[in-house]
Design a protein that fits this description.
Length: 78
C-alpha cells in the first residue's frame, strides 16, 4: 500500500508544522503504511475469528486497540 504524499504533508502541517520537507513526508508515509498494514491485518483476522468476511468498524477499533495505538477509534471515542 502506498499513500499519496500530498495528504501526508497536510497531516504534518495540520499538526502545526510551518514547512515540511519531502523527506519528512516520505518518512511519515512509510511509518503510516507499515502501521496501517499491521492494523488492517489484525482487523481482518478479527473479522475471520468472528466468522465474517466483511471487516467492520468494530474490527478496526479492536485492531487499533490491539496495536496499542493512542488514537481515536473509528467510532469517535478514545
Amino acid at each position: 500500500m502506498e499513500l499519496p504524499i500530498a495528504p501526508v504533508g497536510r497531516i504534518i502541517k495540520n499538526a502545526g508544522a510551518t514547512r515540511v520537507s519531502s523527506d519528512a513526508e516520505k518518512a511519515l508515509e512509510k511509518a503510516l503504511d507499515e502501521k496501517g498494514t499491521e492494523i488492517i491485518l489484525n482487523a481482518i483476522r478479527h473479522a475471520k475469528d468472528s466468522g465474517r468476511k466483511d471487516v467492520n468498524a468494530n474490527d478496526m477499533t479492536h485492531a487499533i486497540h490491539y496495536n496499542n495505538c493512542n488514537i481515536t477509534n473509528v467510532n469517535g471515542q478514545k
